[in-house]
Write a structure and sequence with these properties.
The chain is about 40% helix and about 10% strand. The protein is globular and about 65 Å long. It has seven helices and four strands. β2 and β3 form a beta hairpin. By secondary structure, it is an alpha+beta fold. α1 runs antiparallel to α2, α4 runs antiparallel to α5 and α4 packs parallel to α6. The longest helix is centred in the N-terminal third of the chain and has 16 residues.
Length: about 220
């Protein structure tokens, strides 16, 4: 009952502000996302149908709202449409309704071309569901991670070589720390920090940017 009251209040606030006060609507959607993504799959199974359906319909409508491209100070995943998509994914998984899940995914897959550059934050409830399905298929907990089991060769999707066009010689004896955001590959070694495009999410593959020069004390 308390969950239903909270969802109704957030629903009314979003519905009344998405046209007149889009910044307030974005902040409210972010709060809603923080609430929904912390739930467990099918935890809203017993919530009233009308409450879930009204919020579901509102989020479906907001996921189609097109906004001007964000400036450099604003992340493209913070737009009303992208936040609504993240909330929608969280809501349908928390509800556990197969029809709602398929309808929500279909709506996001057939978005117009103007949404092609939009980034959607994957809610943590999706990772919870993923781990649950993996555990059920494997038949044990806890599951291994990439850090303790590594990556299998047959799981490789694509490869590319980082061309060394730096002015300094890059000795193979120096080790590098590597991290990736999916869109970019970050390489840190004795010469500095480098940002390398992966070719995904509109990044240019194998192009790099010199971010920070590190002073090495001999």
């Amino acid at each position: 009952q308390m969950v239903s009251m909270g969802l109704c209040g957030v629903h009314e606030l979003i519905r009344e502000t998405h046209l007149a006060h889009p910044s307030l609507c974005s902040r409210t959607l972010q709060i809603l996302l923080n609430i929904l993504q912390c739930q467990h799959p099918e935890s809203f199974k017993k919530e009233p149908q009308d409450v879930i359906e009204s919020l579901y319909s509102l989020l479906m409508d907001l996921s189609q709202v097109h906004e001007p491209p964000p400036d450099n100070t604003r992340d493209s995943s913070d737009t009303i449409s992208s936040l609504a998509c993240s909330c929608l994914i969280s809501l349908v998984l928390a509800r556990g309704d197969t029809g709602m899940i398929l309808a929500a995914l279909s709506a996001m897959f057939i978005l117009p071309c103007k949404f092609a550059q939009q980034q959607i934050k994957l809610p943590s409830i999706l990772f919870t569901l993923h781990k649950s399905v993996d555990a059920m298929l494997i038949g044990r907990l806890p599951l291994g991670t990439w850090f303790d089991r590594g990556l299998k060769r047959n799981g490789r999707v694509a490869t590319f070589t980082v061309v060394n066009s730096l002015k300094h010689h890059w000795p193979t004896s120096y080790r590098s720390n590597i991290a990736s955001s999916g869109q970019f590959l970050f390489i840190q070694n004795c010469y500095g920090l480098f940002k390398v495009g992966s070719g995904y999410l509109a990044s240019i593959p194998v192009s790099y940017f010199f971010i920070l020069s590190l002073l090495v004390l001999q």
